[in-house]
Amino acid sequence: VIVNGIIAREQVGADAPAFVRNRVAMQAGYLREIDESFPGMVRARLPLLETEVRGLETVGRLGRLLDA
Fold first, then answer.
1. Distance (Å, rounded) from C-alpha 11 to C-alpha 58?
2. If DSSP states are collapsed to H, E and C, what string results for the chain?
3. Which sequence spans correspond to the domains of the chain?
4. Are 2 and 46 in contact (CB under 8 A)?
5. Is the pTM of this model over 0.85?
6. What are phi and psi for residue 17, nearest 5 degrees?
7. What is the pLDDT of residues 18-68, one digit of tens each?
8. Whole-angstrom Cα distance, residue 61 to residue 49?
9. Are strands 2-6 and 44-47 parallel, antiparallel or unpaired?
10. Which residues are in the ArsA/GET3 Anion-transporting ATPase-like domain (predicted)?
11. What's CA 4's distance to the chain center, in Å?
């Protein structure tokens, strides 16, 4: 199961806009649901990148993140 576009909770401070804090809280619930719904399966979590995934360089970056 691949989950992408995750906003890292540790990168969001108390001074972050309410929209971002709400998204992080919402995604936490979804991630918990994924963990509970797919026990024993490999789950890859990819962060929300600062750019679109376009070109070999960015695809390579995602590959390295998956391999980490």
1. 21
2. CEEEEECCHHHCCCCCCHHHHHHHHHHHHHHHHHHHHCCCCCCEEEECCCCCCCHHHHHHHHHHHHHC
3. 2-67
4. yes
5. no
6. -60, 150
7. 999 999 999 999 999 999 999 999 989 999 999 999 999 999 999 999 887
8. 10
9. parallel
10. 1-66
11. 5
